[in-house]
Amino acid sequence: MAGLKLIVGLGNPGPAYADTRHNVGAVWVRELARRHSISLSLDSKFKGEIGRGLIAGCDVRLLLPGTFMNNSGESVGAVSRFFKFEAADILVAYDEVAFEPGVVKLKQGGGSNGHNGVKSVIAGLGSRDEFVRLRIGVGHPGSKEQVIPYLTKQTPRQSEREQIAVAGDFADAIIADMMRGEWQLAMTALHAPEKKPDKEPAKANPGET
């Protein structure tokens, strides 16, 4: 089973978009880089920031496309062609309006499901869609007309940002499974419902033994 060779975080460049919902994928990869001491630097031939390092003992590159979201495939395609990565070697992290904040799910392959960044990545990889997706829930504004400003112009409340950050703070074991390409194990651990604490036993009334 092939392990990961490239992890991509989608978003829009520039400070105006840095804290918007559309950039949660880029934020997740930047935090992954910080957590594992991987330096990211701008490389014009790859149209983005790229770095290389070890995560869970696996050699991997991290990429933040410097293009706008809808052209992300230009950067991903350039990296994959240069290093001869297959689509299945790649994980792409991005925002998912179908999930509420605090929900994060993995998915192997499939279409773009209306996400223009994912659509561009598929095109950049020569119509190959076998890459793994890390779908980070950001919620839905309630109407189709509001989706674009909701994703690209609004800064989420602090509580929402904290929910998203906590959901994306994976245990080391999950990260290790992802790096090795053990997707069923990673999905089982990540998608398992949170266990509620057992109820405390009823306290005995005074005088009872």
Index terms:
7 helices, 209 residues, seven-stranded mixed beta sheet, alpha/beta, 7 strands, Rossmann fold
Describe the structure.
By secondary structure, this protein is α/β, with parallel strands linked by helices. It has a single domain (6-191), classed as 3-Layer(aba) Sandwich (Rossmann fold), CATH 3.40.50.1470. Helix content is 32%, strand content 20%. It has helices at residues 24-35, 72-83, 116-124, 147-152, 158-167, 172-180, 183-191; strands at 6-9, 41-43, 48-55, 58-65, 90-96, 104-108, 132-137. A hairpin with a 2-residue loop joins strand 3 and strand 4. It is globular. The chain starts with 5 loop residues before the first strand and ends in an 18-residue tail after the last helix. The model has no long low-confidence stretch (mean pLDDT 91).
Give the helix/strand layout:
Elements: E1 6-9, H1 24-35, E2 41-43, E3 48-55, E4 58-65, H2 72-83, E5 90-96, E6 104-108, H3 116-124, E7 132-137, H4 147-152, H5 158-167, H6 172-180, H7 183-191
Parallel strand pairs: 1-4, 1-5, 5-7
Antiparallel strand pairs: 2-3, 3-4, 6-7
User: What CATH first level would be assigned?
Assistant: Alpha Beta
Architecture per CATH nomenclature, i.e. the level-2 architecture? 3-Layer(aba) Sandwich
Number of domains: 1
List unreliable stretches of 5+ residues.
none
Portion in helices? 25-40%
Q: Count the strands?
A: 7
* Secondary-structure content class: alpha/beta
Biggest sheet layout: 7 strands, mixed
Radius of gyration: 19 Å
Number of helices: 7
Distance between the terminal alpha carbons, to the nearest Å? 58 Å
